[in-house]
């Protein structure tokens, strides 16, 4: 028998594959252009975070605590958004020092990953310490 987590993950992956098939059918363009980036974001958002988002909204712990699901969805959102910004405007500069947006985006991704690892470590430590 499939667990609730597995069932929702299968649904998320099938939804992501449906997005790819639909994008190909509608000839949105999977190799180049703004449509390809939107399809990329939607596909990876669904496949990597869709199940966690659904289960977090429903408040179902399952194998992973709800708070951990929200943290994962947050870091995935930052990573995908920063990746899209880098893809669209990576060579653009911002600020008086002509800092490239690519540098800012990569720093945001690195900061999000470090914050995620630190918060997961702290949550794991608290959970093991107070049992």
UniProtKB/TrEMBL annotation:
Top-level taxon: Archaea
Bilayer-spanning residue ranges: 12-30, 36-57, 69-89, 101-119
Keywords: Membrane, Transmembrane, Transmembrane helix
The protein's name: Uncharacterized protein
């Amino acid at each position: 028998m499939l667990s609730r987590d597995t069932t929702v993950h299968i649904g998320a992956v099938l939804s992501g594959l449906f997005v790819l098939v639909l994008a190909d059918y509608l000839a949105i363009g999977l190799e180049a252009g703004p449509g390809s980036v939107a399809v990329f974001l939607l596909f990876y958002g669904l496949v990597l975070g869709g199940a966690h988002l659904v289960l977090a909204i429903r408040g179902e712990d399952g194998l992973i605590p709800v708070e951990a699901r929200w943290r994962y969805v947050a870091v995935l959102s930052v990573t995908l958004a920063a990746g899209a910004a880098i893809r669209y405007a990576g060579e653009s500069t911002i600020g008086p020092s002509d800092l490239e947006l690519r540098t800012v985006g990569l720093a945001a991704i690195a900061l999000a990953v470090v914050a995620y690892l630190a918060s997961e470590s702290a949550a794991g430590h608290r959970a093991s310490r107070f049992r």
